[in-house]
């Protein structure tokens, strides 16, 4: 007998997400659905407005990756108009992208995703002296992971837990067997979770130097970047560089070390060994190195065939709404795309929590459209970026992969 | 109007009352500050700057300090509606010393979807428990607009599939005070821009209680924390303007405190992004700066540890703390001209007067004369 489990809200993300799964008698997931339960209608609102305002409006899609949609909105208009922007503006946009990249990865790793694999309560029983030794295995100069640092963190959290009022940590899944770290390892990452709160502020300041503020910077316009005065000021550039050094230091001496530690602890998980589900990857050019030269290459990998990597053909991108709460006759290229809401609601059924409204998996069940490339789902994001550049044999990347490997598998 | 002495006594009584309540967080603020390397001296400086920001006389800084210590007595429920999480992100990027954010984790944060460990059924339990256990005492902060069209079907949250509209109404009932954080929750924000396909509304339009509106997309963390401190200190709302924004934060026009104001007065304008005027820091009015119509403390407080603000970065203000700014202030790169704003002629002196309920602050004649002080085409 299969049973249905409903998880809503999925927390520590931007937006409103609901996941439902069906598990068999061995508690193995046989089917899964994910649904965005919010529609805001930004596409509809954009119609009829000045193209110059598009960037600022689409920026409000997400305040976490606050710069990405802004830049894409602006660059879409530049692309449509055939506008070429000055090389300095490209560099400045890349510096802002770099700032966001550093900020967002740290926040995602520690503050958003972290609590799924760091058991805070387990950290309380760690021996700080042993933990400090452990930290030295992953880097020779750990940050915030000396015996004294770790003891202070442990005492702080102990005091908090003793009150019985756990606030944001209440009613969670502490002690579950999917947490793989030893108490000492949990304590190290917990200490970095707190340290990262400070470091992400510095990363946000990097974005604000050329963006005016973060979140939601306000210095891009169709045709370039407005913060010329900051760009022309050596003091401002130096300020950025200094903050960049602080964040980089944390990435090397904490974040990277924690990833290596996590890879060893979680490397045998079925979700890791089972490989990726969707074997198609897509990435776009990013981080200007010189005119027309980028750190990350654009490209498409289908069916995991790295050797067969091709250039992106934008004509092959379509959005499908078969299972989304919109009306349309078949998949549409974004140029001809429509956004006509067609809400069909939930279906009542038995779940592990009793009768609940649930997703209609055979019909429509989400506010997110399904983007497809040549009819196939694609993975985009960090892994896709790395794979596409790797497939295109970017020298810097093949080199750093080679030096990372022995550490991960030791 | 309260005299300051009466207000001080009221704050004192309120804090005594809070002292009777149990601390929810065990650990004192002092010991937390120690772990964060924040000295007593930093704390006193911080209290003084919050006092000044709240437009209170300096002696109130002892009250601010006490209120910060007692923040752990106040349960906070933070709900997300139709939004982008930018307001939550603003909060975590706080000032130095990191006291603003510390106060925030010092407060008893019962529910906040971006930060909490629990998901799904367990998250819903946390919310229900907090609303029941602290009925009538909790502070409700809302981020995001409430979709109302189609019975609110454009947003559902939780395993039970309740609409955002149902959840807000329910949570508002037991709240001691409601703060709309950001322009979305305050006035509907970007999703309420024409044609507002989801019928998105500000919280105050769907509940029948007073709501404090913190305009801004997002508002700075100082405006969020300052409002919190005021509530903790006095248990009542601060003085509000006609849009229910706290006057201490939204009482002055961006234009009046702008560092480029001298350029405006001299009629020196950037004509095109990237021109010599842009490099020399000329006024951005002609490229659509909405500072003359916008009430906020951006030029004085700036963002991200005072790093910058849009005008410093060479882009005009877009009016993001004003109601309906997505429609009323667009196009963002063009001056408003003589169109209507909040039902008033945008270039008229009356805009400021009506919003603040104070003496007229001149935009109109002034802006027009200074623009034409220089010929339009060079
Ligand atoms: S007010 Fe702005 S920053 Fe805040 S949730 Fe709305 S769109 Fe995001
Ligand atoms: S119009 Fe804008 S840039 Fe010019 S002085 Fe006023 S606020 Fe500053």
Brief rundown of the structure:
The complex is a heterodimer of chains A (410) and B (378). Chain A is α+β, with helices and mostly antiparallel strands.
Question: Please, could you describe this protein's structure?
Answer:
Chain B: [4Fe-4S] cluster 2 binds at residues 255, 258, 283, 289. Chain B: Residues 84-230 form the NADH:ubiquinone oxidoreductase-like 20kDa subunit domain. The complex is a heterodimer of chains A (410) and B (378). By secondary structure, chain A is of the alpha+beta class. Chain A has a domain at 41-275: Cytochrome-c3 Hydrogenase, chain B. Chain A is 43% helix and 15% strand. In chain A, the strands form seven sheets. A three-stranded antiparallel sheet of chain A has the order 1-2-3, with no helix packed on it. In chain A, strands 4-5 form a two-stranded antiparallel ribbon. In chain A, a hairpin with a 2-residue loop joins strand 4 (220-221) and strand 5 (224-225). In chain A, helix 6 crosses helix 7 and helix 7 crosses helix 8. Chain B has 378 residues and is α/β, with parallel strands linked by helices. Chain B is globular, with a radius of gyration of 22 Å. The N and C termini of chain B lie far apart (52 Å). Mean pLDDT of chain B is 85; it is low at 356-378.
What is the helical fraction of chain B, as a range of percent?
A: 25-40%
Distance between the termini of chain A: 42 Å
Low-confidence stretches of chain B: 356-378
The most extensive interface between chains reads: A-B, 89 and 90 residues
CA gyration radius of chain A, whole angstroms = 23 Å
Corresponding CATH architecture of the largest domain in chain B: 3-Layer(aba) Sandwich
What is the average of the pLDDT values of chain B?
85
Distinct small molecules bound, one entry per kind: iron/sulfur cluster
């Amino acid at each position: 007998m299969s049973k249905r489990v409903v998880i809503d809200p999925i927390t520590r993300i931007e937006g409103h997400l609901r996941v439902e799964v069906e598990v068999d008698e061995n508690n193995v997931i046989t089917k899964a659905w994910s649904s965005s339960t919010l529609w805001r209608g930004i596409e509809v609102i954009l119609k009829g407005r000045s193209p110059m305002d598009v960037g600022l409006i689409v920026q409000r899609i997400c305040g976490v990756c606050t710069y990405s949609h802004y830049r894409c909105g602006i660059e879409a208009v530049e692309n449509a108009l055939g506008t070429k922007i000055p090389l300095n503006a490209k560099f400045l946009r890349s510096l802002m992208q770099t700032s966001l990249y550093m900020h967002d990865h740290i926040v995602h790793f520690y503050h958003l995703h972290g609590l799924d694999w760091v058991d805070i309560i387990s950290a309380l029983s760690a021996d700080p002296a042993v933990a400090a030794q452990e930290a030295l295995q992953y880097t020779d100069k750990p940050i915030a992971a000396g015996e004294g640092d770790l003891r202070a963190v442990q005492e702080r959290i102990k005091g908090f837990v003793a009150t019985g009022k756990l606030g944001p940590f209440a009613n969670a899944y502490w002690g579950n067997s999917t947490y793989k770290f030893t108490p000492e390892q949990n304590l190290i990452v917990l200490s970095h979770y707190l340290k990262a709160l400070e470091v992400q502020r510095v990363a946000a300041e990097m974005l604000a130097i050329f963006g005016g503020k973060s979140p939601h910077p306000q210095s891009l316009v169709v045709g370039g970047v407005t913060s010329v005065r900051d760009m022309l000021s050596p003091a401002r550039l130096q300020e950025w560089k200094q903050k960049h050094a602080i964040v980089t230091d944390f990435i090397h001496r904490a974040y990277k070390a924690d990833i290596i530690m996590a890879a060893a602890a979680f490397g045998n998980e079925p979700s890791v060994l089972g490989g990726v589900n969707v074997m198609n990857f897509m990435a776009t050019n990013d981080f200007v190195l010189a005119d027309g030269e980028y750190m990350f290459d654009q490209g498409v990998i289908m069916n995991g065939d790295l050797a067969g990597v091709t250039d992106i053909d934008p004509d092959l991108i379509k959005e499908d709404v078969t299972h989304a709460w919109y009306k349309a006759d078949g998949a549409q290229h974004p140029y001809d795309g429509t956004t006509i809401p067609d809400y069909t609601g939930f279906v009542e059924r038995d779940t592990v929590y009793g009768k609940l409204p649930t997703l209609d998996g055979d019909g429509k069940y989400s506010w997110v459209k399904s983007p497809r490339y040549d009819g196939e789902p694609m993975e985009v994001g960090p892994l896709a970026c790395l794979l596409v550049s790797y497939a295109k044999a970017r020298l810097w990347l093949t080199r750093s992969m080679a030096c990372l490997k022995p550490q991960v598998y030791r | 109007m309260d005299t300051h002495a009466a207000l001080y006594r009221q704050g004192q009584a309120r804090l005594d009352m809070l002292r009777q309540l149990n601390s929810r967080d065990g650990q004192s603020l002092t010991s937390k500050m120690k772990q964060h390397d924040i000295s007593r001296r930093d704390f006193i400086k911080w209290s003084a700057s919050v006092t000044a920001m709240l437009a209170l006389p300096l002696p109130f800084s002892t009250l601010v300090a006490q209120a910060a210590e007692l923040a752990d007595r106040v349960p906070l429920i933070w709900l997300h509606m139709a939004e982008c999480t930018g307001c939550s992100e603003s909060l975590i990027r706080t000032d130095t010393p990191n006291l603003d954010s510390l106060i925030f984790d010092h407060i008893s944060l019962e529910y906040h979807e971006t930060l909490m460990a629990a998901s799904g059924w367990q998250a819903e339990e946390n919310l229900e428990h907090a609303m029941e256990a602290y009925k009538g005492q909790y502070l409700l902060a809302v981020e995001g607009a409430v979709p109302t069209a189609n019975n609110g079907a454009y947003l559902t949250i939780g395993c039970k599939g309740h609409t955002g509209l149902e959840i807000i109404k329910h949570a508002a009932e037991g709240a001691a005070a409601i703060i709309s954080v950001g322009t979305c929750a305050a006035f509907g924000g970007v999703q309420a821009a024409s044609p507002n396909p989801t019928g998105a509304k500000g919280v105050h339009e769907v509940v029948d209680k007073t709501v404090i509106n913190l305009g801004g997309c997002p508002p700075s963390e100082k405006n969020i924390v300052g409002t919190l401190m005021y509530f903790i200190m006095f248990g009542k709302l601060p003085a509000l303007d006609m849009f229910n924004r706290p006057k201490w934060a939204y009482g002055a026009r961006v234009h009046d405190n702008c560092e480029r104001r001298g350029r405006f007065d001299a009629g020196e304008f950037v004509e095109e992004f990237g021109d010599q005027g842009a490099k020399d820091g000329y006024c951005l009015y002609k490229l659509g700066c909405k500072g003359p119509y916008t009430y906020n403390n951006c030029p004085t407080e700036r963002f991200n540890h005072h790093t910058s603000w849009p005008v410093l970065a060479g882009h005009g203000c877009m009016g993001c703390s004003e109601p309906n700014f997505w429609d009323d202030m667009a196009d963002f790169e063009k001056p408003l001209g003589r169109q209507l704003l909040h039902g008033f002629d945008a270039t008229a002196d009356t805009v400021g007067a009506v919003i603040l309920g104070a003496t007229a602050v001149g935009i109109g004649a002034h802006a027009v004369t200074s623009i034409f002080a220089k010929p339009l085409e060079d």
